[in-house]
Amino acid sequence: MITGSIKAGKNRTALAVVALVIIIVLAVTLISGPLMSAGSSTHGVSEDDEQAIVDYLLQTGDRVGVAFPSTEWQSGESGEFVLAVKNKDANVANIYYLNVYLEGLVDVSSTVGLLSDEVDLWLTYSESIAVPAGGIETTTITVTPASGAPTGGYILRAALCQSPVDTECKHTSPNVSPSIYGSVQLSFEIV
């Protein structure tokens, strides 16, 4: 009789633990869903567009390419650009160093000099990209403008250098970096 009570008690405990685990999993799922989507970008690049930029680099002599999201954003929206890098060296893997910076403005009531530091805060990207010998790698550049950002067009430059010493990798005259590997423009408009 005592043995039967112990077995029944163990079964109830096991069921209670399973029920508790299910409740915790459901709670975490319900809570993390809205939080995860809150950090995602409003404008992204499709897998087809990402593959198209990789195919483009495979078919051309270009070293760097970019896939754009839609470029007209409402205040408070964000976007992701996909940068593709082709290693022209078929024998050696390389690491390229990325710098993204504000290069120009169109119909914005400010100047590049005044907005450069603010725009830097809008950018999230990996500062280095390892590319296998003869290969192509992609990386995402996320732009999250401040909610009160001035309306108008923003032109960014994504510059890649071959030297880690070149911490301010630039491809804008007169400050072209000596170790520049390639660069592309990124643009979007806040309406």
Please provide a written account of the structure.
This protein has 191 residues and is an alpha+beta fold. It has 2 domains: 38 residues; 144 residues, Immunoglobulin-like, CATH 2.60.40.10. 32% of the residues lie in helices and 32% in strands.
In short, what is this structure?
The chain contains three helices and nine strands; from the N terminus they run ααββββαβββββ. It is α+β, with helices and mostly antiparallel strands. The protein has a five-stranded mixed β-sheet with strand order 2-9-8-4-6.
Count every helix, treating DSSP H or I runs of 4 or more residues as helices: 3
Rg (C-alpha, Å): 24 Å
In helices, the fraction of residues equals: 25-40%
Helix and strand sequence = HHEEEEHEEEEE
Spans of at least 5 consecutive residues whose pLDDT stays below 50 are 17-21, 24-39
Question: SS-based structural class?
Answer: alpha+beta
What name does the CATH topology of the largest domain carry? Immunoglobulin-like
Q: Write down the CATH class of the largest domain.
A: Mainly Beta
What is the first-to-last residue Cα distance?
Answer: 77 Å
Number of strands: 9
Mean pLDDT: 82
Which band does the percent of strand residues land in?
25-35%
Quaternary structure = single chain
The domain tally reads: 2
Q: Overall 3D geometry?
A: globular
CATH homologous superfamily grouping of the largest domain: Immunoglobulins
Please describe the biggest sheet, giving its number of strands, its sense, and whether it closes into a barrel: 5 strands, mixed
CATH architecture group name of the largest domain: Sandwich
Strand order of the largest sheet: 2-9-8-4-6
